[in-house]
Amino acid sequence: MKKYFVGVMTGTSLDGIDVAVAEFDIKTGSSISIHSYNTYPFSLLYKIYIKKLIHEETTLEKISMLNYYLGHAISKTVLKHLEEHNISPYEVEAIGAHGQTIWHQPEKKKIMNTNLNSTLQALSGPVLAVKSGIEAITDFRAADIAAGGSGAPLQPIFDHYFLRESGKDVVVLNIGGISNITFLEASGYRDDIIAFDTGPGNILIDSVMSKLYNKDYDEDGDVASTGRLNHDLLYKLLSISFINNDPPKSTGRELFNIKLLEDLDAFSIKSQDLVCTLTHYTALSISKNIENYCTTKPFILKASGGGARNKMLMRLLADYIPNAEVQLITLDDKDITDSREALLFAFLAYLRKNKIHGNITSVTGAKREKILGSVSLP
Length: 378
Description:
The protein has about 375 residues and is of the alpha/beta class. It is built from 13 helices and 14 strands.
């Protein structure tokens, strides 16, 4: 009997392919059983390809080829994961896969005589379904955008069902390439949920570590901890309007990238000072958004994503948000600090199969709730 849902996430940090397997039941209560989770690192070649695709002039051929490449790569990775964890593909109901975001434009712009916003996640659903032999559900953001929303964030639906705390306000923070938060008020009402991107997560820190240190990230915040905060650069960064924009809002590599730092003359300061300042900026942009748009009362801050492993960043968050009880996320007796986003797409696949709405209109700005995802059969 089919019972498992597989979730796959490839995020803006370009860490790798995250795969999670779980069972869900929200018809008789908010129930989740997490079976397994792993990250399968991307090759350096892939990271270079994606960064060039996003930041340099590209061709339609390269975008098209990436769609099909990811269908092949993700199917191989999912089948490898299932074999490693003794799960038969016949036990899997569906794969929910996000794809690689190569463009996200939440603000409307004019094309010909029409104002539109748009988003593009590279991944061919039919290729994933045929190559894996498992039903694939992809393109989760499009229906929300069609209904007038920004297509992001999608994570709050998972947080609403599984991460609330009785009688306590909760802010769920994901520090991936971009940082985003879900504010779950103690009331527990779905229509009261606030969620949005706060700005950079690891994206600027990782970009600088790659450029200056030839490393993927600042492990434990070790480089940042040896540097000094540069107040002039911090002031310039905090002047970027996105941080103070009202939600709903979302962002990506289109704004926060190496070119931004070059334009701000950021590389004129010492390397360790730059990493330190960017770490402070990340923490401050998160704390300012929580204070301005979520709560000033004591609350629980549940942190996830790769940035939650950065010890200095977490210390700064505790300093900048003194009224928060900061903790990593556990669920189903498991640490889901690294797997929350992959679990989201497994859950969105579950919702799609059960014809349950997956977006939250108060979060994305959509005019109505929608069933999310496009289905591809094997």
